[in-house]
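mind reviewing this stuff:

——
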Amino acid sequence: MQRLSGLDATFLYLETPSLHMHVSMAAVFDPTTVPGGYSFEKVRALVGERLVQAPVFRRRLVQVPFRLDHPYWVEDPDFDIDYHMRRAALPAPGGMAELAEFVGDVCSRQLDRSKPLWEMYIVEGLAEGRIAVVTKIHHCTIDGVSGAELLGELFDLEAAPVSRPAPEELPTVQRGLPSDARLVAEAVVARATRPLRITGLAWKTGKAFLDVRRVRQSTTGHAALPLTTPRTSLNAAVTPHRRVEFSTISLDDVKRVKNTCGTTVNDVVLAVCTGALRRYLLDGDELPEDPLVATVPVSVQDSTVQSANKVSAMFVALPCAIDDPVKRLLAIREGTKGAKEEHKALGAEVLLDWAEHATPNVFSAAARAYTRFRLAERHRPIHSLVISNVPGPDFPLYLGGAELVSGFPLGPVMDGAGLNITVMSYRGVLDWGFMACRETVPALRRLADYVPGALEELLEAAGLEPAVPVGVADRSTTA
């Protein structure tokens, strides 16, 4: 058995019938590189062989009686890979619009907690004979960075699938699930030491907040604060229905802006998001004077906490009201500098340690009540949206011989902030995945279409050459 960390368990407690806490990816492949020709059976056999050897795909949850403690991972004695791996096909013409509609439908349904928390769809019928692999994994299992690494275990660096040595011995799957008595005993031991740990954590937290205050007084750029964002159409109670869209821009073009303006790649990504959001809000005649507030996940891979998720978050202001694209970028640069300094002063360990002491019954009941009574619409929004930027490889990857052309990551939306934008780099291109509540952001396609234009505005304002158009069809080696 392995007990979930507090942060991992929090993603379970947050989940409600309308708030799905899974992360997804839509990966497009060119199967013309498969030795001997593509077939579903080939891909299914290879993926099945590799997934079975990864413990994360074979484990399921068990709840502690009366929810006295966080749940545990156990080996699923009834693991059936055919339940998790599924075959599907797109309707004609099989373009990115049809793929986005399919992925949105898949992401509109929760995962079954009585089974390992993942699904994978091999999707055929894409234009030009391509296929897609759509994955859905619960956030309590992985975060964005570890998810990219985990999926990387499936890939090869050459078109000919490499035969990987099987482990000497796969873990022995226990017969049946752990008894209630054992789970309760484990919970009692954990709760016995909780008061002492909370006392020490309280002192640590107090010192951290003093450090943050000192940083805010000594720096010009500051992190944005939650509950300060203006209300827009993005801020509504979410429904179970999801809409997905994709976009792509050149990483080299982003780096040109970065080098000219003295910023980071992440600053430019946030500035492009801000430019696209500005046009979207202008369309609805709802552009606010105050900046939007984005929650930006931050990887903390050096954390000592044993957790599938090693991620914290910082709040960054997106000054959509500033008309000049370069001035917007420089304002974001100052904001992210301050946010990083304050996040460092607070310490990711403090946030992760407090999550360890979340009370399952209280947390889950509060999340359900918050959703049921649409409380997100009764107070100032906590934040406007979530924006993630995940680094990926700059070399080709293959799955069963099929070349990876694009990989669009997709993160969950939060109640009261119905938009998530996740970006991943791959072979000199930034792939953008947009996940939104279908009712909250009905014009998501328009927002995704504004991304290349927002980059073009930045390049022009910085006195640089126009952007290089990129698309899914431009990146396969065979093309």
